[in-house]
Design goal:
With 289 residues, the protein is α/β, with parallel strands linked by helices. The chain is built from ten helices and nine strands. α6 crosses α7 and α9 runs antiparallel to α10.
């Protein structure tokens, strides 16, 4: 029988457990999650095992990163399945605090990031989002003090915001990005995929296919703006309500109009029915995708 990971719910218990796992010399990797674990999360845990001696995961649905009209209340919560999956991957520790543990009465401090958090992508459509993310991630990193923290590249802008956060706050942690894990048809793994109806699920891979088509066209010499225009048209014709399809410098998220301004990253966000999906692709990665 697979051993269940140690589960702690308070910061005091987390710090004591991390100290015991570290044992003075062992390295610790943290995988922050909001639960509803899928193959993408499991890939992060496996990569964490490759990078560190001990692995901790957090499960916390962070209300501070959800807007008033967003899906905090119905966000998938699959605790038993999550713990079973983490146990199977030999996760050493799970930090599962309550909202009151993270934001106790009187909590009055929040981080308002700039730089990659002001790129006109997710921040344009979810202006509250990165402050909520930065605040909770900073707390988790300070509370657990891992050597490494693993984040998926599906939330690419978020990854750059967190890297900047750790650098600017002098946090002694290496922020590691992991490539997007996809379903067989190319759809990026996401907890929100569970919201899709059967017909929407059939349509959803159009996002990834369009990214690949745009990247291929740009590599062949088509102007970036023209490739994006064709991509936007295809996405909307498939039935999505498009928020953005953009080409950005992969390191700064500044708008890029040619491969000469690269490395380029294509980023997309669109709603299919009531479900908002995001995806991205590095243009020079097209031959390996």
């Amino acid at each position: 029988m697979t051993a269940r990971p140690r589960i702690v719910r308070t910061v005091k218990a987390l710090r004591a457990s991390i100290a015991a796992l570290r044992g003075g010399k062992r390295t610790i990797a943290l995988v922050p999650t909001m639960g509803a674990l899928h193959d993408g999360h499991i890939a992060l845990v496996r990569h964490a095992h490759e990078r560190a001696d001990r692995v901790a995961a957090s499960i916390f649905v962070n209300p501070a990163q959800f807007g008033p009209q967003e899906d905090f209340g119905r966000y998938p919560r699959t605790w038993k399945a999550d713990i079973k999956a983490l146990a199977k991957e030999k996760t050493d520790l799970v930090f599962a605090p309550s909202v009151e543990d993270i934001y106790p009465e009187g909590f009055a401090t929040r981080i308002v990031p700039e730089g990659p958090a002001r790129a006109g992508l997710e921040d344009k459509f979810r202006p509250h989002f990165f402050s909520g993310v930065a605040t909770v991630v900073a707390k988790l990193l300070i509370e657990a003090m891992p050597d490494i923290a693993i984040f998926g590249e599906k939330d690419y802008q978020q990854l750059l915001v967190i890297r900047r956060l750790a650098l600017d706050l002098d946090l002694p942690v290496k922020i590691v990005g992991h490539p997007i894990v996809r379903e067989k048809d190319g759809l990026a793994c996401s907890s929100r995929n569970a919201y899709l109806s059967p017909s929407e699920r059939e349509t959803a891979p159009v996002l990834h296919r369009t990214l690949k088509e745009c990247a291929a066209a740009i590599k062949k010499g088509e102007r970036v703006m023209e490739a994006l225009a064709h991509g936007r048209q295809r996405i909307e014709e498939a039935g999505f309500a498009l928020d953005y399809l953009e080409a950005r410098n992969a390191e700064t998220l500044e708008t890029a109009r040619s491969l000469a301004e690269g490395p380029l990253r294509l980023l997309v966000a669109a709603k299919l029915g009531t479900t908002r999906l995001i995806d991205n692709l590095g243009v020079r990665q097209i031959l390996r995708s």
